[in-house]
């Protein structure tokens, strides 16, 4: 079952908004709250994040496109094992690869944050266990 990736509800006085940056591509594995894309209004840039973990199966917009509230801009296949797949996925490193270095840095930061979270949870569990 696929999940729609939509532009969020916007205030009534905001019409079309511009897609400022796209952080994902078809086939990418994303975690909950991973940045998907940014939209730009007259006053601010908003980062749109994934509401659940999964694999991007379709993405219809690119930077510079204009979109409206509640517009479906992509599809995602939810995956309860996305965290494991994300950690173990590595971009292909060859001459035909179109992996952007900023995307690699973003994914590296996400992996680092994941492992820091794991260590934090383990430390808290250790404190709780020793205080019993």
UniProtKB/TrEMBL annotation:
UniProt keyword annotations, A-Z: Acyltransferase, Lipoyl, Membrane, Transferase, Transmembrane, Transmembrane helix
Lineage, highest ranks first: Bacteria, Pseudomonadati, Pseudomonadota, Gammaproteobacteria, Alteromonadales
Protein name: Lipoyl-binding domain-containing protein
PROSITE patterns in the cross-refs: BIOTINYL_LIPOYL, LIPOYL
Cofactor(s) required for function per UniProt: (R)-lipoate
InterPro entries to which the protein is assigned, alphabetical: 2-oxoA_DH_lipoyl-BS, 2-oxoacid_DH_E2_comp, Biotin_lipoyl, Single_hybrid_motif
Subunit and partners: Forms a 24-polypeptide structural core with octahedral symmetry.
Matches recorded under Pfam families: Biotin_lipoyl (PF00364)
Keyword Membrane: yes
């Amino acid at each position: 079952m696929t999940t729609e990736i939509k532009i969020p509800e916007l205030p009534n006085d905001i019409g079309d908004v511009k897609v400022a940056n796209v952080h994902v591509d078809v086939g990418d594995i994303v975690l909950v709250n991973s940045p998907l894309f940014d939209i730009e209004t007259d006053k601010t840039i908003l980062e749109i994040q994934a509401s659940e973990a999964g694999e991007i199966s379709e993405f219809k917009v690119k930077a510079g496109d204009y979109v409206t509230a509640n517009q479906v801009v992509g599809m995602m296949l939810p995956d309860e094992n996305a965290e494991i797949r994300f950690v173990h996925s590595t971009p292909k490193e060859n001459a035909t690869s179109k992996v952007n270095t900023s995307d690699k840095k973003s994914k590296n930061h996400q992996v680092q944050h994941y492992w820091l979270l794991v260590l934090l949870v383990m430390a808290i569990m250790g404190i709780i266990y020793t205080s019993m």
